[in-house]
Amino acid sequence: MSDTTTTTDQDQPTESQLETPAYVPRQITFDDLDGQSLEDAYAASMVAVEDGQLVSGTVVKVDRDEVLLDIGYKSEGVIPNRELSIRNEIDPSKVVSVGDLIEALVLQKEDKEGRLILSKKRAQYERAWGDIEKVKAEEGVVSGLVIEVVKGGLIVDIGLRGFLPASLVELRRVRDLQPYVGQTLDAKIIELDKNRNNVVLSRRAWLEETQKEQREDFLENLKPGERRSGVVSSVVNFGAFVDLGGMDGLIHVSELSWKHVDHPGSVVAVGDEVDVEVLEVDLDRERISLSLKATQQDPWQEFATNHQVGELVYGRVTKLVPFGAFIQVGDGIEGLVHISEMSAHHVDLPEQVVTPAEELWVKIIDLDLERRRISLSIKQAAEGGVVAAEYQQHFGEQNYDSEGNYTGEKLDLGSTSEGQEAWAEFYSEQGLDAQGNPLTEAEAEAVVEAILEEAIVEEIIEEMIEEAIVEEMVEEIIEEMIEEAILEEIAEEIVEEMIEEAILEEIAEEVAEAEATDQ
User: Fold this and answer.
1) H/E element holding 168?
2) Which residue has better confidence, 5 or 516?
3) pLDDT above 90 for 237
4) Does the structure show a pLDDT above 70 at 309?
5) Is residue 270 left, alpha or beta, with left meaning phi > 0 and alpha meaning psi from -120 to 50?
6) Which of 342, 393, 396 has the alpha carbon at shortest distance from 365?
7) Is the pLDDT score of 157 beyond 80?
8) Which of 6, 148, 152, 358 can pair with 510 through a Cys bridge, CB separation 3.0 to 4.6 Å?
């Protein structure tokens, strides 16, 4: 048996198997360039863009500072965070997500780094402006979300940044604007300036329009003389506005108090609840005039109720004038002591008898409630009389008789004046005592006769002067009434102009501040 292995014919490869087949390349594509070069074909596959062009694309990446947008250009477009939304400093992930199809405006085809810079915010502006202009032309209403509080008002998202001044948020000015953030508000467009990208809104105009019927009903049911409760909504130099529960009425500064008011803020403050009386309702101008003092006790009426002519009252000299002196005899009540009622002797100047701030007794000789005038007399007070009830209580009822005449210790009717001292000196020189009593009967008759003659002459002169003064005062009063009527009419016009100017100036300032904030 042999170890040698033999090969059969079946184990040998055939000739056909030893031959290598020919290589046939596999077709992986086909030529569809139709004669174009590869470079031209590549350029044709990209989107053509120019600065200011609106493009659409898909968000492919969202970073903290920017968003990448595929618009079919040779590279993705970059949307910086500041160009993503009209809201300032917002997280990009809260505005867009990967895969979102959005529109953008080409800001720069190629920056220094070769990037395509886009703006979603500007594209939104371009689309919104057309809609906004159409709404303004049709005097329509826009609706938007309040996204920010700025100095002077609110920023409302209406597709672009609309500025709503604080004075136009409600029918009356609102102090705290923060609660409005996140609310959707309706408003009218009152100003448009595309070049400055400026849109001013007014929610108050919308409220006035929608509530016009309610306001008309409110005004028709409001009658002069009615008393209403309200809340002070604002205080201005010329008065205070009060919310009556639907509309604001004005209390002019002259209607705040029976006393003189330097500034309305010294009487009322914003938020005060007050009772007021309706003075006038102007249906055409939709204005309500109110009075606070009409709901309070009239000090003149109170004085007239508690006093009568002939009574003695205690007062303080407030002012000297050529024809006499004004005496304060009550809270906000002043009366006039005419120069002829200052002393029993002739007086050239009021300061010869009294001085400012001096306190003294005077007698009421006339009380004219309708004209709000009180005539007083120092001369007649010196003769005595019935003391007013409040002073009787002060000095004790035991010092008065059944008719109210003072029977106690002698009242101090004021300090001795220079004029009285001059009379005392005259009596002394004539040989009379301090009271002017004569030493002999003959001398007394002579002195009395001389005094009577002098008194008659003085009385005639005083009457003539008084008549002249009265005539002059009547003329002055008539002139004053005419001037007051003219001034009241002018004042009303000025107040109206001041209100309109104040609103316009406030809106202008708020708009300027908002623009400065945006920049």
Assistant:
1) none
2) 516
3) no
4) yes
5) beta
6) 342
7) yes
8) 152
Query: What is the crossing angle of helices 212-220 and 203-210, to 10°?
Result: 60
Q: What are the tens digits of pLDDT across the range 79-106?
A: 888 888 777 777 788 888 888 888 888 8
SS3 92: helix
| Encoded tokens for 174 | 């609102």
Quick one: tokens of 61?
């990446």
Burial (CB < 10 A; 0-12, 13-18, 19+), residue 144, is buried
pLDDT > 50? residue 2: no
Going by pLDDT thresholds of 50, 70 and 90, the confidence category of residue 290 is very high
DSSP 39-57: HHHHHHTSPP--TT-EEEE
pTM value? 0.44
pLDDT tens-digit map of 197-212: 788 999 988 888 877 7
Smallest CA-to-CA distance from 384 within 401, 417, 359, 361 is with 361
Question: Span 481-494, mean pLDDT?
Answer: 68
Tokens 């005899």 locate to 329
Do the beta carbons of residue 96 and residue 59 sit within 8 Å?
yes
Long-range contact list for 290-297, CB < 8 A, 24+ apart?
Answer: 290/242, 290/249, 290/250, 290/251, 290/255, 291/251, 291/255, 292/251, 292/255, 292/256, 292/257, 292/267, 292/268, 293/255, 293/256, 293/257, 293/258, 294/255, 295/227, 296/257, 296/258
pLDDT-wise least confident of 24-38, 236-250, 433-447? 433-447
CA distance 472 to 252: 32
Q: Are 115 and 103 in contact (CB under 8 A)?
A: no
Distances (CA, A) of 234 to 173, 272, 401: 8, 10, 55
Sequence-distant (≥ 6) Cβ neighbours of residue 120 within 8 angstroms: 67, 79, 83, 84, 85, 95, 96, 102, 103, 104, 105
